Amino acid sequence: MLNSGSSSVKFALVHPGSGERTLSGEAEKVGTPEAVLHVPGDSGVPVTEQLTDGSYQAVISRILGHVHESGSGPGLVGAGHRVVHGGERFTASVLVDDKVIDAIRSFIPLAPLHNPANLAGIEAVRAARPDLPQVAVFDTAFHQSLPPRAFRYAVPEEWYTRYGVRRYGFHGTSHRFVSQRAAALLGRPLGELRLVTAHLGNGCSLAAVRDGVSVDTTMGLTTLEGLVMGTRSGDVDPGMFGYLADRAGLSVGQLTDVLNTASGLAGLSGVSNDMRTVEAAAAAGNERAWLALEVFVHRLAKAIAGMVVGLGGLDALVFTAGIGEHSAEIRGRVLASLGFLGLAEDTEANARHGRDTGGRISPDGPVLALVVPTDEELMIARDSARLIAGG
Ligand code: ADP
């Protein structure tokens, strides 16, 4: 499994059946002369290697070298890549061929930071191991099932037909994984469930999942839409652009940058983009940190209720990713705001993150709340193994 970002490459050797990771690591400052690779050493303690050539090609050759040295080379059946944007073309994971590469390239304008790096990873594996099957797993694919009423913006038709302006949604691999896992934990077929899945990490998004299919989501054309996040604003009034252009003399590019990198929890609290730090500051009496939590929770609860419209009812709310899996406070406050949907908190189960209750953090009843740890790497490995075996 490879996740090639704009300056990093994360990798893990994953057994798709057991989920076991026999090797994992991360390269940083890729594409620069200071590139380094962190890999587990002999005693399990991570060691850092300086790479004289920091190109994607050199970094990936070195990663494949480690796979070989670990003795796992013969067991390697393929490489699965996280790819951020699959446009309207990819509704599921695919085996990589020339046409897939061209299509991923054609979506670069929609994901200018991510798709070029994802492609560089695919091309580097191809150059090093032309025989090795590769699979692309798209963040957007799971949401291609959204109906037009959920994915279209009320803007001129031509913006959609000419420029692809529509809601795509992201974090699809995580929403898909936790919805499957939630069904297993509930002991009910996914095809009968109405779920809202809440991926709350540095980036945050919700999905409305009916019968295993995404019918609505909070992220849109870009990853800026929707919930309040670590450094991202989520929804704002688009009229803000013209207003601030006049008042503050900022360009569209500058405003977009501030909304992506200096807003959200960081902008509101002035303390941190990290939920742990914001929670600690709020508990110590920092009023701005407290307000950041209030806005985060209010907007999250409001958006969860909104997702229920697409489902026509709710069987379970699923929390996942860093905040969703670890912050009993945020989960408890969200559940307290959503009593009218039949949700409630089981304080003890929530404090223990649902560990002794099969994920459940609400009292037993018709509408449940669950904590389900996400595992995008395993989902990528499973999709890859399935496609490679079938193809
Ligand atoms: P990414 O989206 O980069 O994968 P994560 O899923 O790891 O990130 O989520 C990171 C977020 O999770 C951060 O805001 C971090 O503060 C938060 N988080 C992690 N552990 C806790 C915790 N114990 N309590 C509150 N928030 C937590």
Structure description:
This protein has 391 residues and is an alpha+beta fold. The chain contains 15 helices and 13 strands. The strands form three sheets. A five-stranded antiparallel beta sheet has the order 1-2-3-4-5. The radius of gyration is 21 Å and the shape is globular. The two termini are 18 Å apart. The model has no long low-confidence stretch (mean pLDDT 96). Bound molecules: adenosine-5'-diphosphate (ADP). Adenosine-5'-diphosphate is lined by residues 201-203, 230, 274-276, 279, 321-323, 326-327.
What is the gist of this entry?
With 391 residues, this protein is of the alpha+beta class. Helices cover 41% and strands 17% of the residues. The chain has helices spanning 56-69, 98-106, 115-128, 148-151, 157-163, 172-186, 239-248, 252-261, 264-269, 275-283, 287-311, 321-326, 328-337, 347-351, 376-390, and strands at 2-4, 9-14, 21-28, 36-40, 46-50, 79-83, 94-95, 134-138, 194-200, 204-210, 213-217, 316-320, 368-371.
Topology:
Elements: E1 2-4, E2 9-14, E3 21-28, E4 36-40, E5 46-50, H1 56-69, E6 79-83, E7 94-95, H2 98-106, H3 115-128, E8 134-138, H4 148-151, H5 157-163, H6 172-186, E9 194-200, E10 204-210, E11 213-217, H7 239-248, H8 252-261, H9 264-269, H10 275-283, H11 287-311, E12 316-320, H12 321-326, H13 328-337, H14 347-351, E13 368-371, H15 376-390
This protein binds adenosine-5'-diphosphate.
